[in-house]
Amino acid sequence: MPRRSTPHQRSILDRTLVVDNGAFTIKAGFASPTPNLDDCHIIPNCLARERDKKIWVGSEIETCRDFGEMAFRRPVEKGYVVNWEAEKAVWDSTFMNPKSKLSVSEWDHLQKLFLHTLIINQCDPDETNLILTEAPNTTAALQSNCDQIIFEEYEFATYSRHIGPSLNAYHDIQHLFGSPPRETQTPASPAECLLVIDSGFSHSVITPLYKGRPIQQAIRRLDVGGKLLTNYLKELLSIRHYNLINEEHLVNEAKEKVCFVSYDFRNDLERTWKGASSKRRLPEQQQQQQQEEIVVDYVLPDYNAGSTGQIRPHDPSLAARVKKMGAMANPGGVVEDFMTLGNERFAVPELLFSPIDVGMKEAGLPETVMQSLSGLPQGLWPAMLANILVVGGNSLFDGFMERLEAEIRQLAPEECVVRVARAPNPIKSTWQGGALLAADSTALKTVQVTRQEYQENGGGWLSRVFAGVATR
Length: 472
Prior knowledge:
- The structure is a single chain.
- Helices cover 35% and strands 18% of the residues.
- The protein is of the alpha+beta class.
- Strands 3-2-1-9-10-22 form a six-stranded mixed sheet, sandwiched between helices.
- α3 crosses α18, α5 crosses α6 and α12 (365-373) crosses α14 (400-411).
- The protein is globular.
């Protein structure tokens, strides 16, 4: 039987690194006594290869100027780290590189990368506590691999592994719903009841939390995330406009700029439809006016000129001339390519609410929320429905919050109050929750495990501690 560690072996160091290891980006930074979002740095979690075979690792991509046909290799698939060789390359480049290649003169052009290297030069694992996130329902084998990498490869002094959504419980949740903010001197205790909707790159997951602990049997997952939406948009654009199957970065950028969630999908689809039946129902002028509210032109980026993708109001006469001539010069004389986007703008994010549109036999987000509640005692339903927190990049789509709240209200029992709030920064929210936990040394000490404890008791014991079924 493993020996129980003595209290003095769990001393917590002053420096804590919080890493929200997402599939699309890593959110990382050192926690401070008063956590600030400026302390969190966003690092692309991938290796990329451009057309001339040059390899970019992690934050190096911030300096790239040509994303044409760039191929990406991501360590995280379906929310889980499955390629530690690639993940270690990103981590080593971000956290362990002993020297920065930047000079003062490069600051104006490489500011973002410079901020990332501030983490690089400060991280000494032997003198650092680590808070690391993982996706809900990660398999024991993947968890064991992660624990070994942290303690045996990097040799962090202390370490705790958390389900990502659970860290959001340390926010001042009631302040998001209009209550006065809690005092800054008050330790960040977790919210008593919280339902977290995390819609990110790989998937969307519903996690009910009670006093900061996930209620495992009620966690529900929807396999629709930003990656699926980008791939769907690539298919639509490749069929209707240009072949963009190999242009992941370009299409993802376009998705973030032009897509929105429709409050009334059927009506908006009808407004952008150009079929004969639609023309018979509406006068031509009224039909054109309704289309103009949705249809836009998206100017493709020109990597040679250093220009980014741009949205502009749709000009039917310009589109007609370009269709005849093949390309059109802008007022500056530069030839530009653009796409006229209509129902693609809202048909893509509609998959979050109706996955059946692409043949996925899964419920949409609002129905998945109710499935999650069905795994809880009904006595917890009112508290959970009154405290719904939304995080993740997909929540930034225009109209997403309004549609989600409206459909949850329709499905929830009439006697329950439904309150839905989006975190002030939904991308960095999980990291900030971890930083709030790290700011309370007493709370941090209860969850961190030292490398000495791991060496004495083994990986199996560590897994049970993080699962809450073993004591120290």
